[in-house]
Amino acid sequence: RNLLDMDTFSKSDPVVVLFVQGSGSSEWKEFGRTEVIDNTLNPDFVRKFVLDYYFEEKQNLRFDPLGSDSAVLGAQDFLGQAFVALGEVIGSQRGRLERALTGVPGKRCGTILLLAEELSNCRDIVTMQLCANKLDKKDFFGKSDPFLVFYRSNEDGTFTICHKTEVVKNTLNPVWQPFTIPVRALCNGDYDRTVKIDVYDWDRDGSHDFIGEFATSYRELSRAQSQFTVYEVLNPRKKCKKKKYVNSGTVTLLSFSVESEFTFVDYIRGGTQLNFTVAIDFTASNGMPSQPTSLHYASPYQLSAYALALKAVGEIIQDYDSDKLFPAYGFGAKLPPDGKISHQFPLNNNVDNPSCAGIEGVLESYLQSLRTVQLYGPTNFAPVINQVAGAAAQVTDGSQYHVLLIITDGVISDMLQTKEAIVTASALPMSIIIVGVGPAEFEAMEELDGDEVRVSSRGRYAERDIVQFVPFRDYVDDSGNQVLSMARLAKDVLAEIPEQLLSYMKTRDIKPRRADP
């Protein structure tokens, strides 16, 4: 909107060039260009850019509008540029973001409007139930043991097996259990593509006898939502041999229902906000912050491991939080003036409002706290987990999801209470990320990360796996490239968040709110 006018006798002929930046790299590479639109300062471009989206990565994009007379960057028709992360566009209201164009000194360059939508790859899931009537008898003793085999047709006319029902023993009138199958597995998203169904009689030796077949399509099956559909089962060989052959029985579709499988992006576009909370370990085992051996030591040239972990995770999550206000706590320190030990003190020293403005605000408050509190102990996680769980319990309708980042150097002191807190939190809209810094052994943390064995406390098991633990040392780049270390760390610790959010929504049957058109 309102682009610079660089042409003398008419308006500019703009084109937009998209550049992308590799993860942990500072190099920009051209990804693609829009079409050229002649003689306008308010173009609406049609060409779309299709990008792979990864929640756990900072995907930096740069948009450069050019006057089309300039096929080469750097020539006179540079109309400005805008920098944005893909997560910012997806996390903005209705996936729509307006950003000012800059880069031409002393001039207003106008704005660029970006719209993001997820490509629908047919995420519907079908549940159906079938029965059969008067199937051919294939067994010498007793009746048949029928089962169904579903095939989807391919572009080249061949068929691929996509589902088998269970075997129903000794009957010519079987009723099969309802089953569920993704629509794309059934027909690859093409509603009119042939679906072939074979009926077999099961034999123990694997040489199952063919009873007959019938064909349908997803569209035809879906009509059964309002009526029973009956298919004739035909055996082509019998049909050729016997003049009076009618069929080998019938199969009836008893029920057919479709449900959408929602994605992380559906919820974000529907307005779900990610609320990010930070908890930092201020125990004495970290070492005196003023000493270079301390894990809290920040040199003029390098951030501490704590600050790196905070920036790596926070800079991605903040794109999904509209107010950019992050509660930040410390634990395991003695506070002034009376030296009282606290396990959830606000880093900004404001008990009524522990939120900091942006990740930079959190870093500022963290460094300020290092100068005012005394590092002490023990290492207790439960108080801060319970604090965030209390906030998560206030809103459970799917509009808010909490992510707690705990950065720690060591051995946990309140393991039983922490397990109890995690089991309680697993029923709430929240996830916990634990980053271990320093050289300590972190076996206890592995126990909290319920990938292998679900966390339990006093006979209760966690409803969902909500904890992700990683040791920071595994991500440190050997060459000292901090940007690369941060990108690697964020990629691993955030990879499970979308699935954890979806598992909460699914167990509560919460559907995404419809974004306004």
From TrEMBL:
Under the heading CDD domains, the entry gives: C2A_Copine, C2B_Copine, vWA_copine_like
Return the GO cellular component terms, semicolon-separated. Answer: plasma membrane
- InterPro entries per the UniProt record, alphabetical: C2_dom, C2_domain_sf, C2B_Copine, Copine, Copine_C, VWF_A, vWFA_dom_sf
Write the record's keywords in alphabetical order, separated by commas.
Answer: Calcium, Metal-binding, Repeat
Q: Which residues cross the membrane?
A: none
Q: Domain (VWFA): give its ranges.
A: 275-476
Q: Where is the C2 domain?
A: 93-231
Query: What Gene Ontology molecular-function terms does this entry list?
Result: calcium-dependent phospholipid binding; metal ion binding
GO BP annotations listed: cellular response to calcium ion
Family that this chain belongs to: Belongs to the copine family.
Name assigned to this protein: CPNE9 protein
Q: Which gene encodes it?
A: Cpne9_0
